[in-house]
Specification:
The chain contains two helices and six strands, in the order E-E-E-H-E-H-E-E. With 107 residues, the protein is of the alpha/beta class. Strands 5-4-3-6 form a four-stranded mixed sheet. Strands 1-2 form a two-stranded antiparallel sheet. The model has no long low-confidence stretch (mean pLDDT 90).
Length: 107
């Protein structure tokens, strides 16, 4: 608390490009870590989508998949018709202590 958040970059699973935390410098960001296919993934994604829709323009939201392939995360995004960003978080989960999911981080 009171310190700059560690930057992270994660490839998007549904489009070319990368989600980078520092791109939203000065704007609040919610990271929703989830494990595709787990018992809690549907609920975590529903929360991410709701935050994305309700706070559009005021809050950046990224659902960050950990523990499974990017393909599984993209499939869940497509099946649920989500519009929230979904990124492959395999390279950033340790930065935010996302070993247990779901995990919600607001920076």
């Amino acid at each position: 608390v009171g310190k700059p958040a560690a930057d992270c970059a994660a490839p998007l699973v549904h489009a070319a490009g990368t989600f980078r935390l520092s791109a939203g410098l000065g704007k609040p960001t919610a990271l929703v870590f989830f494990r595709p296919g787990s018992k809690t993934s549907a609920d975590a994604l529903a929360v991410a989508e709701a935050l994305h829709r309700v706070y559009a323009g005021r809050l950046t939201v990224a659902a960050v998949a950990v523990g499974e392939s990017a393909t599984a995360a993209e499939r869940q995004r497509t099946e649920r018709n989500l519009t929230v960003l979904v990124a492959d978080g395999s390279g950033v989960r340790a930065t935010y202590g996302a070993d247990a999911v779901p995990r919600f981080v607001v920076v």
